[in-house]
Amino acid sequence: MPEVKPSLLNNLNQHLKLVGPSAIRAFDIEVSEIPDIIKLTLGEPDFNVPDHIKQAAIRSIEANDSHYAASNGTIHLREAAAGFLADRYDIDYNPTNEIIVTIGATEAIYDTLTTILNPGDKIILPTPIFPLYIAVGLVDGAEPVFIDTSSNDFVLSPEMLKDAIAKHGDDIKAVVLNFPSNPTGVTYNDEQIKAIADVLRGTDIIVISDEIYSELSYENSHVSMAKYLPEQTILLNGVSKSHAMTGYRIGILAGPAQLVQKIAMIHQFATTTASNPAMAAAAEALGTEAGRQDTLVMKAEYLQRRDYVYDTMTQLGFKVAKPDGAFYIFAKIPAGYIQDDFAFARDLAQKNGLALIPGSSFGPGGEGYIRLSYAASIETLQKAMHRLTAYMEENGK
Predict the structure, then answer these.
(1) Domain assignments of the chain as residue spans, ordered by start
(2) 65-289: what fold?
(3) Which family does it belong to (predicted)?
(4) Given 79, 98, 121, 152, which residue has the most CB atoms within 10 angstroms?
């Protein structure tokens, strides 16, 4: 095995020193060594991809659809995505120049931030938040401006946003909204989205609106930021969570043509184009009535699971902002137990064989919380809650 010349390591992107490997993935790997562990760690739907979607991928392979597609994705998929966004959320995009197909929403995050940010720019991140935004921003040389939303049930208020803008002024290049949220499951209603749009409309701040969990909104219909601020919004979505297609790696990015054209350059440099069979499957998922019904079936199952886990954990003394979407519970560790969230999660995994993600993985405001993914069968969740109950009964101080 070759050993790197040590001095070469000094020549790398120096911003890499500010980040580390994903804390979520690292903790998941760590606890995987524990025998008989139940892992409710990753945001990984347990459903199989619907058969009609799989058949679309198979047809693509059998038709020898093996050559480069257009860099921004097949027009068939971009038209399906445009139709989906119009039908579900009443927002209109031109599939020819306002939509890019990316390698999952994670590539869309990377492409967008890398296009927007210059070294020294500031980006507003309401926390707790999916940590990829923090890492990519730092690697791009930007400075995160964290707004801890834990005191407001994990919702960014217009007042919080106004205060951050007043403090940091013209240095702010972008703000990230992720709703329904990973890790909290909290989302925004129509009134809240409109109020945030009103604050941002008079600025030159770009909104990166990560709505990958939009189809998993429970009590209220999802309202997109692009409905109220389309001229400043880059919208991210995809099929990973809505159709249990995480391994297909298909994301959707939409926005004003002039911005999308710039982001498309980074996309082209980074990936060239997505896989043809995966795009054919995604077009079936987004562009057919059967595909749009698939999400409703899964959502009904997730809702049942949410209610079961939420009820159990609140009875055990966890404080939880009841999630309105996604498939996560973000719970405050009760007093009388280990308050360091990493230490609590390790102790729970080692003693009772249940793995949850420490809340501080998601930035300021996540300390003292744990995140549970209920993207698992009800039988698995029942076993998990039995183990959690036993741990809480045996380890309170």
Answers:
(1) 6-48+292-392, 65-289
(2) Aspartate Aminotransferase; domain 2 (3.40.640)
(3) Belongs to the class-I pyridoxal-phosphate-dependent aminotransferase family.
(4) 98
C-alpha–C-alpha distance, residues 196 and 159, integer Å: 9
Q: How confident is the model at residue 87 (pLDDT cuts 50, 70, 90)?
A: very high
Of the chain, the end-to-end C-alpha distance in Å amounts to 50
> Helix, strand or coil for residue 204?
coil
224's enclosing H/E stretch is none
Residues near 111 by Cβ (< 8 Å), separated by ≥ 6? 100, 102, 253, 263, 266, 267, 270
Distance CA(301)–CA(291), nearest Å, equals 16
Distance CA 16, CA 220 (A): 40
Q: Measured between alpha carbons, how far is residue 125 from residues 23, 111, 140, 148, 368 in Å?
A: 18, 17, 15, 9, 19
Place of tokens 């106004």: 162
Closest CA relative to residue 276, chosen from 62, 36, 30, 51: 62
Yes or no: domain 6-48+292-392 corresponds to CATH 3.90.1150.10: yes
Query: Which tokens belong to 253?
Result: 């990015």
* Phi, psi of 74, rounded to the nearest 5 degrees: -60, 145
What average pLDDT does the chain have?
Answer: 96
Following CA atoms 259, 261, 264, 266 in sequence, which dihedral angle do they give, to the nearest 10 degrees? -70
Q: Mapping DSSP to helix (H, G, I), strand (E, B) and coil, where does residue 58 land?
A: helix
The secondary structure of residue 69, as a DSSP letter, is P
Buried b (16+ CB within 10 A) or exposed e, 326-335: bbbbbbbbee
Residue type, 27: F
Q: Which two tokens stand for residue 58?
A: 């198979």
Q: Cα dist. 37→225, 240, 258, 346, 355 in Å? A: 39, 25, 49, 12, 7
- Which residues have C-beta within 8 Å of that of residue 278, sequence separation ≥ 6? 57, 248, 249, 250
Give the three-class secondary structure for 316.
coil
Write out the two tokens for 122: 């500031």
CB 365 within 8 A of CB 150: yes
Indicate left, alpha or beta for 236 from its phi (over 0: left) and psi (-120 to 50: alpha).
beta
Percent with pLDDT over 90 in the chain:
93
**For a pLDDT cut of 70, what percent of the chain falls above it?**
100
d(CA 145, CA 168): 9
pTM above threshold 0.85? yes
